[in-house]
Specification:
Number of strands: 15
Largest sheet: 6 strands, mixed
Structural class: alpha/beta
CATH architecture of the largest domain: 3 Solenoid
Helix content: 25-40%
CATH superfamily of the largest domain: Hexapeptide repeat proteins
CATH topology of the largest domain: UDP N-Acetylglucosamine Acyltransferase, domain 1
Shape: elongated
Strand content: 5-15%
Length: about 260
């Protein structure tokens, strides 16, 4: 038990630059308190003490602002950062090394008792503030859920889900199956510059338009050169685009680098 507690404290020190000491984490981090109380509630639930488990869970919610059903399964090194308003449903499963921020809901969309109604998070998943993950599907290892996203379908390992309803951005590397955190940089709130699909689409369109204008300018320059040769008629209109004026860099800055 104490080794697991030390591991929980260390993961908070590793991921939160505001954490200054183990004592501070142990006494002042509600996410850690919610985990400890949940393990007590989960033990009671697993040993047939359903009401006691729910009572401990209720007390934990009152003390920490984090509501975790006692039947939920939570792995090691899970960090509830700030975490006020987090709701974790009965059949939810949270893998090792996950980070969950404030306002997150791991909810269910089915009313059938005994069914798998809530999501399963793989290892090292980051669920950003305000995100809602609804349904009994799997979020793969190393996936990221953007702030305020509403996820209603499975997310592949290493992918990013953003938007309402969430759009899936596949992982950019081939090693998405490697769920180990070794050598991987932790990204607060799961944010990177390449995780907005609309910005990616706009940048692609801007690059394509810029390339087309460059090709058109080259064509007109070639036509102008040919028309300037002796015996050739002037076939270049006065408004021919022999020079590029497409401001690709400015547009790219507007949609985000």
């Amino acid at each position: 038990m104490f080794s697991r507690l030390r591991s929980d404290i260390q993961c908070i020190l590793d991921r939160d630059p505001a954490a200054r000491s183990r004592w501070e984490v142990l006494t002042l981090y509600p996410g850690l308190h919610a985990l400890v109380l949940h393990r007590m509630a989960h033990w009671c639930w697993g040993h047939g003490l359903k009401w006691v488990g729910r009572f401990v869970s209720y007390g934990s919610r009152w003390l920490t602002g984090i509501e975790i059903h006692p039947a939920a399964v939570i792995g090691d090194r899970v960090f509830f950062d700030h975490a006020m308003g987090v709701v974790v449903g009965e059949t939810a499963e949270i893998g090792d090394g996950c980070t969950i921020y404030q306002g997150v809901t791991l909810g269910g969309t089915s009313l059938y008792k005994g069914a798998k109604r809530h999501p399963t998070l793989g290892k090292d998943v980051v669920v950003s503030a305000g995100a809602k993950v609804l349904g009994g599907f799997v979020v793969g290892d190393g996936a990221k859920i953007g702030s305020n996203a509403v996820v209603i379908k499975p997310v592949p390992a290493g992918a990013t889900a953003v938007g309402i309803p969430a759009r899936i951005i596949p992982a950019r590397t081939a090693s998405v199956g490697d769920s180990s955190s070794t050598g991987r940089k932790f990204e607060a709130y799961g944010i990177t510059q390449e995780d907005d699909p609309l910005s990616l689409a706009m940048r692609s369109l801007i690059d394509n338009a810029s390339s087309q204008e460059h090709q058109i300018a080259l064509l007109w320059q070639a036509i102008e050169t040919l028309s300037a040769q002796p015996g050739k008629k002037d076939c270049v209109p006065g408004e021919a685009a022999t020079k590029e004026c497409f401001e690709a860099q400015r547009l790219t800055e507007l949609v985000g680098k």
